[in-house]
Amino acid sequence: MWTIEIVLIMLLVGSFAGFMAGLLGIGGGMIIVPVVLWVLKMQGMADLEYAQHIAVGTSFAVMVFTMFSRMIAQHRRNMVDWKVVKQMAPAMVIGVFAGSYIAKYLSNHGLQIFFVVFAVLVAVKTLMDMKPKPSRSLPGPLGLNLVGAGFGVISSWVGIGGGSLSVPFMLYCNVSVRKAVAISAAQGWFIALAGAAGYLVSGWSAEGLPAGTLGFWYLPVAGILATATIIFAPLGVKVSHKLPPKKLQMAFGILLLAIAARMLWDIAVV
Fold this sequence. Notes:
Blueprint: H1 4-24, H2 29-42, H3 51-76, H4 82-103, H5 108-128, H6 141-158, H7 163-172, H8 177-202, E1 213-214, E2 217-218, H9 219-240, H10 245-269
Antiparallel strand pairs: 1-2
């Protein structure tokens, strides 16, 4: 059942997700996935067999718009290294398609546990702020392709645009945090397109899906969240270029820990 309260909360969360996406270089999936699960719970569908799949698929559908808005904002500031994007994006897309196909055969509970563990690991790594060797740099084309494919598979299972993976990776390779966030914005759009398409196809023949779904996209939720994220993503990009890099990294890590804790609580309660 849809209520004004649910719609308003989604608009608020969508605005926050868009802002954080622009600010920290993430696609917003870490925020959107739990929100979609909450909406399903409010509508009495918490035990739906494909609840996590719908949450991830809807997240990708929203990110198609969010990431495009971010990518354009970063490109206008001449921050995107398109050479790196071109080397990693094709492999990421292949990884996403493969992962979204495999995801249909993974359990709902298993995907949720993977989401939580992944978020905690990335958060701890980010907050520890381990300094890479000064001589370390990005690998060659083959290495970037392999890394990109791996990031694509994981992104497809978690419902993210890849920023939670690519930003820490590039920081590890001595890429500046602002440049890493900008590259992630461009890569994330390709991941979102592939992820949205993959979950649309893999969920096309799934049975027992709620009204308003197209494949694993929950269209009413996607529409509301996308509207809010598109508006606030450019604002996040603007603020990110004014904040110190250290504070950006800390905010990124704390946000991931908070989301993981919330999802772990939901899993434990269920």
